[in-house]
Amino acid sequence: MGNLSKNFSRHEFECRCCGRAEINPRLVDALQQLRDLAGQPVRISSGYRCPEHNRAVGGATRSQHLLGNAADIVVRGLTPVELYRLAEEVEAFRNGGIGLYPDKGFIHVDVRDARARWGQLDGTNPQDSGFGRPSGRPEGVRARDGEHQIRNAGGSAGKNRRK
Question: What does pTM read for this prediction?
Fold first, then answer.
């Protein structure tokens, strides 16, 4: 039993270097919905980050983690692609940010006020391929939390949004 929701506790969101935690209740609610859909525990590998820790891990300058709006997560038995698809079923994530990191084995979810997608899916950016969008049209929504390097379909580095 958690102290923030049925299954989540404050300590799961704490910064790994200082123990501080600023947590948006919308994030907790959305993660609980995702956990209920998955029917199994959602492990948070990174929740709130203080500015020092965010710099140390190479996070975006205006990362949603700094605001307590984001979590990097895994669910045992689900691939990152399967978890990405499940996260799309949660309204706060569908309308917020989802980043796909299959090579690292996790996804990023956040409750920002604008839809954003990034990462790699079978060598392509999910935003370019239409993955995760009912219409399949290019989305054109830019993240407001900074630009970062990710690999495009050709494997070279290019500017795009990330965490």
Answer: 0.76
